[in-house]
Specification:
By secondary structure, this protein is an alpha+beta fold. Helix content is 26%, strand content 32%. Helix 1 (14-29) runs antiparallel to helix 2 (34-55) and helix 2 packs antiparallel against helix 4. The protein is globular.
Length: 337
């Protein structure tokens, strides 16, 4: 299943019916009952109408996904409105900042399987909604290790994404790949998907060796940039190596460090010698990796209480503020639990 998000700018009420119909049809295709698809309609209507009423528009991202054998629809709603301070208060049924009935956010929370909001005054708001085909499907307990979320968006107007990410879970740890095919469109998509295939098949544990492995298998493609980050639970270390401009940053509390990749293009020319950055692996670290579809001059510390938020909320908050809109864009955020 394609893991990229479809995206719509919501700046006119006339778009709401179209988006509702599109997501409704997606729900039916995934096997949702007509009743559950109807509940999805209510959620989408509330999200989109709130964007128009309270934020003068915004952006809605959605995709189909499968988790633990359960079909689901994930939605992010991003806006640059005035924001609000008391999230818990406005989540209650019956609360309204205007003279409406005030069932909006409360009904979204009730009908969805997961609903999260992050907002700051005069910054705007990001919302995350997960709608599973079964309304009573509970969220699984967060497992120890890497708790992650990622958002990938096509270059505006393109049908495929030239970015990709993949996480390989192993008995002794895990490996993360984030790549960006040169340019955008079909050729970039083919290059990065070849790289993902090579990453999945690689038996190497060393990021530098994995990148060399990928390089040898994508030489007939347009080429790409990529970073691989691996963790060995036994040694309690990260090993990180990148070629090209994937931005990789690890937060350890309020302190953070950016890991500089090598110059080069995987599939065309890479350095003869590649060395990994070796970093202690600790609980509560946050790793953020993104393509150049996002600006790099950001700081999580500028956002109140963001470190407490889920990886998906952190990813969407950074995306909202830093997306360039001139290329494919992918951001992956992982928290070490």
């Amino acid at each position: 299943m394609d893991n990229t998000f479809s995206t719509y700018k919501i700046d006119d009420r006339s778009l709401i019916a179209f988006i509702k119909r599109e997501i409704h049809n997606l729900a039916l295709q995934l096997g949702f009952t007509p009743h559950r698809a109807g509940e999805t309609d209510i959620i989408v209507a509330e999200l989109t109408s709130n964007l128009i009423k309270y934020a003068n528009g915004g952006e809605l991202l959605y995709r189909a996904n499968v988790e633990e054998g359960q079909n689901e629809i994930e939605i992010y709603c991003l806006d640059k409105g005035i924001g609000f301070e008391n999230v818990s208060k406005i989540m209650n049924d019956g609360y309204s900042s205007t003279n409406t009935l005030g069932h909006g956010l409360g009904s979204i929370k009730r009908l969805s399987n997961d609903f999260q909001i992050y907002s700051m005054k005069n910054w705007g708001c990001v919302q995350y909604v997960k709608i599973c085909e079964k309304s009573d499907f509970g969220l699984s307990d967060i497992k120890k290790g890497l708790n992650h979320s990622a958002i990938a968006l096509n270059y505006p107007g393109e049908k495929v994404c030239g970015d990709a990410y993949y996480i390989k879970n192993l008995k002794k740890g895990f490996q993360i790949f984030v790549g960006d095919g040169l340019g955008h469109g079909q050729n970039a998509h083919e290059a990065v998907q070849l790289a993902v295939k090579a990453f999945k098949q690689s038996t190497e544990s060393d990021p530098a060796e994995i990148l060399s492995d990928i390089h040898s298998k994508v030489k007939k493609s347009r080429g790409l940039v990529a970073t691989v980050a691996t963790v060995d639970y036994g040694l309690e270390v990260w090993n990180i190596c990148g070629i090209g401009n994937i931005n990789t940053r690890i937060y350890d509390g309020l302190e953070n460090k950016t890991y500089t990749p090598y110059n080069g293009i995987i599939g065309h020319n890479i350095p003869r010698t590649l060395n990994n950055s070796v970093v202690p692996y600790k609980k509560h670290q946050i790793i953020i990796m993104h393509s150049d579809g996002l600006r790099t001059r950001w700081n999580l510390s500028d956002m109140t209480s963001i470190f407490k938020q889920s990886p998906g909320i952190i990813a969407s908050a950074l995306l909202k503020e830093n997306i360039r809109g001139t290329d494919d864009a992918t951001i992956l955020v992982g928290k070490i639990i």
